[in-house]
Amino acid sequence: MPFTIIRDDITRVKADAIVNTANPKPVIGAGTDMAIYMAAGKDKLLKARELIGDIKPGYAVETSAYNLDAKFIIHTVCVSWEFDNKVALDTLESCYENSLKLAFELNCKSIAFPLIGTGAYGIPHDAAVEIAKTVSKKFLKETGSDMKIMLVVFDKDSLESTSAIAKKIKQYIDDNYVENAIVDEYGLTEQDRLDMSRVRRKRERILIRNNHHLSRAEEAKLEQQYDDATKSFCVMAFELAEKKKIKDSELYGGKYQVYFSKQVLSAMRGNINYHPAKYIAVTICLVLGLDLNETLDLLERAGYTLSRSRKADVVIRACITNGIHKIDKIDEKLKENGCEELKKLK
Fold this sequence. Notes:
With 346 residues, the protein is α/β, with parallel strands linked by helices. It is 54% helix and 9% strand. It folds into two domains: 3-154, Leucine Aminopeptidase, subunit E, domain 1 (3-Layer(aba) Sandwich), CATH 3.40.220; 176-344, no CATH class. The protein contains 15 helices and six strands. The protein has a six-stranded mixed sheet, sandwiched between helices. α5 packs antiparallel against α14 (311-321), α7 (190-211) packs antiparallel against α8 and α12 packs antiparallel against α13 (292-300). Mean pLDDT is 79; it is low at 178-197 and 199-209.
């Protein structure tokens, strides 16, 4: 099989190319980077890296493998998950894409990857494994190459993460989806629950003021928090997009491949109280890479929620909880659970 996941020490794997999660500067880092330097011969490898200089995030460059059982070491640089989740995942994709492209140009017949970005950079293992699989399969399909691609993990948890994520999603659905919804049992509609949430926030503000002697700065901060809570869906969505440096053109037709039109964004820009259809709003949350709490908060501003009584919504909840935001991956999970794909949901 061209793509395999194995459990081993990457410095002991035999392959034409060994990939290193490198420091952007020509210095020896920690983790995999340190291990590869020590196994290859740190003085020789460091000298070669110094000749290359800085490496930009997502890029890939090669050096000799020296003492490793390989022809080349391919050095690639990721970015921190804490810096920006979406940027980190996009950069991780580039790391795999550019490393595979370089290995192909070097006529490599085999390549071994560590689980890039999951150490000091903090990218979740499940998301990292999924990107490694997706990019590798796409590369093999598009190039027609028979290159052997090995994802080398050192710990048992990483090895199990691919199947574990599917189990987690199934378990989440089993635990959260009920045919007879609690909201029906108690006669509450989704709008009732949204109204109750707004009342709760107002009550919280009154309690804080009554029970604490707030300084002017604390009072201003509290007001800002509640001003933020009253912002419309459109206002908050565009603020989040700007913060994450996502342009309008990318939302409706760029690399994010989102299923709604330019006209929807024009309407949102023209009317801050515009309410997009529910699953367009959900799609916007996915593009923004929001976690579940952030998603529910943004959806609430448009009068929606992800209901625990609708299976499609529970599947989407499960995906977001497990760090899956790509539309095509969510569509796969929806289909697996007998639901329509996202753009067909009403």
